[in-house]
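Example S7 (structure tokens).
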């Protein structure tokens, strides 16, 4: 089956109606109105769901009836995302208050044992987890923030006690493990890792990409849709990993030799892996220069020098990336460089803009 040429690299025009099918509605809002906040109307029109361990939302579900309220999650992410709150232990019927538990045995298949009664809760938590991850609200989430170190919710480095009585820190909570195996492409983080600015920005990027992927391929999958999706993400992929971009490009070019299911699964696994690699200033500068090259025919020398100066200011740390991108996008819009205009890189979600613009003040939340 013939595929659409990639993002007009040979001067071809993109089918914008196809692009419009997978650029989320808030991108248009942000682009048209140039706003950096999401209104109530936006949230209602396009809620983005993420799952969160219930105690992080301030729910009193811990073993002692307490919570682990995380203000970054509720006050910042809560402005943009709709939460699916889950406490596996309470929902599986362990009650509040309850005895504490730990993982024991093999890190690959640990058992969850009560610390006072020696009760084995493994089957109960596993049965609940297997059922919960299949429910409708969980199927709509685009990411999950887990509570660190929990034998149910910890996503990595959870203590697994050995016969010697000593723990090794290579385990994963039983609910987290079930969810991550069921949805291997789902972006996941824990509340401690989100204290690192680059990790939280990367998490948001992956959550939004996961959602775009879902929207784009909601209906029937086609090679054409995939090529358009890939085209719109060119700059974003290059800002994360040129190597992955090239592998994906080759995969698309060879797509006729793969089955629909084969290309879809391979593409998205590699796509999400690419976005896990963090962007750097150097990679962003390279992408911004590439965008400038795409516009050069339509710019006079003064405009070109202005953009070069802007990129240089960004490189020196004088201007944030979000502002640089916004200013460059104005030129792209004015010149109607269509294959660049609809790049997801040039159309950040308002939460990405807000997080970058207020990165310094957000640090206060983690002290
Ligand atoms: S860590 Fe998970 S299981 Fe424990 S209280 Fe929080 S939500 Fe419930």
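Recovered sequence:
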């Amino acid at each position: 089956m013939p595929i659409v040429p990639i993002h007009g690299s040979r001067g071809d025009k993109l089918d914008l109606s196809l692009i419009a099918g997978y650029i989320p509605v808030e991108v248009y809002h942000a682009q048209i109105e140039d706003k950096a906040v999401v209104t109530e109307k936006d949230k209602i029109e396009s809620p983005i769901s993420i799952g969160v361990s219930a105690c992080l939302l301030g729910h009193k579900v811990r073993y002692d009836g307490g919570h682990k309220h995380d203000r970054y999650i509720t006050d910042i992410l809560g402005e943009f995302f709709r939460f699916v709150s889950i406490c596996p232990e309470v929902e599986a019927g362990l009650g509040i208050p309850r005895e504490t538990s730990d993982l024991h045995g093999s890190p690959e298949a640990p058992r969850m044992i009560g610390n006072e009664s020696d009760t084995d809760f493994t089957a109960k938590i596993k049965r609940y987890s297997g059922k919960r991850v299949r429910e409708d609200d969980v199927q709509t989430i685009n990411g999950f923030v887990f509570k660190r170190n929990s034998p149910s919710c910890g996503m990595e480095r959870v203590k697994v006690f050995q016969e010697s009585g000593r723990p090794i820190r290579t385990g994963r909570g039983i609910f987290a493990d079930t969810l991550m195996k069921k949805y291997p492409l789902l972006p996941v983080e824990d509340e401690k890792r989100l204290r690192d600015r680059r990790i939280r920005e990367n998490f948001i990027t992956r959550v939004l990409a996961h959602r775009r992927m879902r929207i784009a391929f909601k209906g029937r999958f086609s090679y054409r849709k995939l090529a358009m999706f890939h085209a719109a993400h060119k700059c974003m992929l290059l800002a994360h990993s040129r190597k992955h971009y090239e592998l994906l490009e080759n995969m698309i070019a060879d797509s006729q030799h793969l089955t629909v299911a084969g290309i879809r699964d391979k593409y998205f696994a590699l796509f999400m892996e690419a976005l896990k690699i963090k962007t750097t200033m150097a990679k962003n500068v390279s992408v911004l220069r590439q965008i400038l090259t795409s516009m050069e025919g339509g710019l006079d020398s003064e405009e070109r020098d202005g953009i070069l100066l802007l990129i240089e200011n960004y490189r020196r740390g004088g201007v944030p990336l979000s502002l640089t991108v916004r200013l460059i996008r104005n030129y792209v819009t004015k010149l109607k460089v269509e294959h660049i205009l609809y790049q997801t890189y040039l159309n950040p979600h308002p939460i990405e803009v807000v997080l970058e613009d207020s990165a310094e003040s957000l640090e206060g939340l983690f002290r």
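Notes on this example. Residues 108 and 171 are 7 Å apart (CA to CA).
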